[in-house]
Amino acid sequence: MDYGLDKKSNSLKTFNTLFIVIWLLIACFPFIWTFWGSFKVRADFFSRADWWYAITAFNTLIETGVRFTTEAYSGAWFEGEFWKASRNTIIVTISVVSISLFLGTLGAYALSRSTKNYAFWILIIALIFRAMPHITLVSGYLFPFFQLQIWGILPTTIVVLVAINQPFTLWLLYSFFKTVPKELDESALIDGCSYFQTFRHIIMPVMWPGVITAGLFSLMLAYNDFTVTALLLNQENHTMVPKIQSYLGTNQHEGNLMWAVSSVVSATAPLFLLVMFFQRQIISGLTAGAVKG
Amino acid sequence: MPNRSFFWFFLPAGLAMILFIGLPIISTGIQSFYAQHDQILVKVKKCDPFGCKVSVVVDQEATSKIKGEKPLGKFNGFGTYVDRNHLATNQVSEFWGESKSIGEFVNKVGNLPFYKALVFTLTYCVIVTPCVLLLGFIIALSLNAVSRKIRGPLIFGTILPMIVTPLVGSLVLFWMIDAEGIIGANLQIMMNDPYLSVKSSKSLTWITIIIYGIWHHSPFAFVVFYAALQTVPQEPLEASIIDGASRFQRVKHIVLPHIYPVVTFVALISLMDNFRVFEPIIGFSAEGSAQSLSWLIYDNLVNEEVILFGSAAATSIMTIIGISIILAPVLIRTWREFRTNR
Q1: What are residue A233's phi and psi, to 5 degrees?
Q2: Distance (Å, whole) CA A112 – CA A92
Q3: Which pLDDT score, from 0 to 100, does residue B140 have?
């Protein structure tokens, strides 16, 4: 808000800057600290004697001979089989994003172009479904999945994540499709296109920004999910987040806690890069539903 | 769009939601009326040179046979809902009879697992949601006053806590506040108490999880408020400056009314998300002193011996009822708007 008339006093400016600096410190420091600590040995990052060791790398120097060690990473990725978890995450994420965008664009387009009452009710039901805690849904899945013997495998989890993701994707894409003028598809329909042709050749080409935003959110949901993946996948098929939790559970290994630290960094880094590149889309997505009402 | 095309367009998404959201809710409802089978016990008489003993053992064969016939378990009606781990009606009425004061009664009821979790979940929601709204709004206001050139990186830094999964976010904080981590160790030095540990005290654990919740959710409120602030009309603001309105008055009388619809939206979304709090409890290893409704369900589902489907389902149904109560005012309002618009 740069109002020509609005003169800010110096003290207010200082106070504002100070507040932002403190907030950014609170928001970012934990990640920087964890990143730094992931290159140390456990005795330094979780130092019983003196937390300053985490900075001077006192024990790391003694144990490994260098100040920065990648021991935790190699341990987690190879010995802890984190590579398998990240492979599973990639499979799950890509499948969930592509399937849920396919279903979501079709459904949201129909919702945005329908003037009937039922379209409104479907959106309301989607909102209710969006509010369901995932764990309550999982408690509904487990028993039938055991009976059908489809528990523990990746395809089941992918389908479940797509479904859980649908309400939000529908709402998001619905608000994007609403911004595309109806005249556009009406003229195409008059020219003899079928609804699907209109959708495919007229609407989709102008919808890319919305699709990218929706895709990013599906990606974050699938990538970040813990509830569904931890309970619906067996040990072998675990994705990254439940894998991190499994490193915490077993404390016999001295290395395990550092494995968790390094895998937290490994799992977070791609996400941060992604957000850095697509920040604008994510923010427009978060506000799409809100600002337009 | 004609009904026919609507149907085909919506079919895949609708089918996915019915099969994997609608049906599971029904399945949860059905499961909640069943409980796992009792083990079938048989008396076995064993005789050895020193005499005969009658011992009771589990008849494995019969137990697994009945499990195979009725995998859902035995019908229990509302039994699971009222047992000690859920609504505990018997215990509550017992406590009501024997407690001398209301305080004692509340205290006793608060120690029953379900009520304990309910109290934590509600406390978390009630404290975190307003704090998130407030902090998000303040950050949005103050970032909005910064020069446009450096806003991009500042926004990136601000939304970091939101984009990591709650488990990772809480772990990252937990490692710092741990007695062996940077903040925990410094707190010990500051308080001059070498045994101070967040883990050991119930109230400290609650405070930590609540602070984590505010840290994690504020960026979301910030982003929405920030976008809404961009749409605030300039003319009334300039007019109010000329009329001599103070900064606070301008925010109160012009900015807030303008973004009011967005505030309710953010409040609703964070309330829904806060109600399902459970990953931070795992991340902070706080099971001992803080349990939420979602955590109770999780705990039943990862039970080592036998998965307590019935118990988890009963808690789930009650959680769903809780969510509906939270959602009800919004749904009623939307419905009214819809009717007047028509």
Answers
A1: -110, 145
A2: 29
A3: 92
Domain ranges of chain B: 3-69, 112-302
Mean pLDDT of A32-36: 91
Separation of first and last alpha carbons in chain A: 22
**Shortest CA distance from B236: residue in chain A:** A3
Rounded CA-CA distance A286/A263 in Å is 28
Domain edges within chain A? 96-291
DSSP H stretches of helix in chain A: 10-37, 42-45, 53-56, 58-64, 71-74, 82-113, 117-131, 134-148, 154-179, 182-190, 195-197, 204-206, 208-224, 227-232, 240-249, 256-291
Low-confidence ranges of chain B (pLDDT < 50): none
Do strands B41-48 and B74-75 pair parallel, antiparallel, or not at all (unpaired)?
unpaired
Helix axes B293-301, B309-341, angle to 10 degrees: 140
- In chain A, which residue's Cα lies nearest the Cα of B23? A140
Using an 8 Å CB-CB cutoff, list chain B residues near A1. Answer: 144-145, 229, 232, 234, 237
Burial class (CB in 10 A: 0-12, 13-18, 19+), A257: middle
Write down the CATH superfamily of domain B112-302: MetI-like (1.10.3720.10)
CA A223-A225-A228 angle, to 5 degrees, is: 135
**Contact indicator for A223, A93 with CB cutoff of 8 Å:** yes
Provide CB contacts within 8 A for B154, sequence distance 6+.
A20, A24, B143, B146
pLDDT at residue A91 in the model: 95
Q: Which of B16, B164, B173 sits opposite A166 (nearest CB)?
A: B16
Q: pLDDT tens digit string along A229-256? A: 999 998 888 899 998 888 886 554 555 7
Of the two residues A98 and B197, the one the predictor is more confident about is: A98
Question: What ipTM did this prediction achieve?
Answer: 0.86
| Phi, psi of A180, rounded to the nearest 5 degrees | -80, 120
pLDDT value of position A289: 53
Do strands B41-48 and B34-35 pair parallel, antiparallel, or not at all (unpaired)?
unpaired
* pTM attached to this predicted model: 0.87
Chain B residues inside the 8 Å CB shell of A195 = 1, 5, 9
Tokens standing for A250? 């077993």
Whether A263 contacts A80, CB under 8 Å: yes
Least CB-CB distance to B144: which of A1, A111, A279?
A1
**Residues on chain B touching A34 (C-beta within 8 angstroms):** 172, 175
Cβ separation of B338 and A120 shorter than 8 Å?
A: yes
Q: Tokens at residue B305, please?
A: 């011996």
| Cα–Cα distance, A242 to A235 (Å, whole number) | 9
Domain range A96-291, CATH architecture: Orthogonal Bundle (1.10)
Residue type, B253: H
Alpha carbons within 13 A on the beta-carbon side of A110: 25
Angstrom distance (rounded) from CA A228 to CA B133? 29
pLDDT at A284: 74
Predicted local confidence at residue A23, as pLDDT: 93
Compute the average pLDDT of residues A98-103.
94
- Identify the residue with better confidence: A289 or A260: A260
Listing DSSP states for A133-200 in one string gives: -HHHHHHHHHHHHHHHT-TBSHHHHHHHHHHHHHHHHHHHHHHHHHHS-HHHHHHHHHTT--HHHIII
Q: Which residues of A touch B32 (CB under 8 A)?
A: none
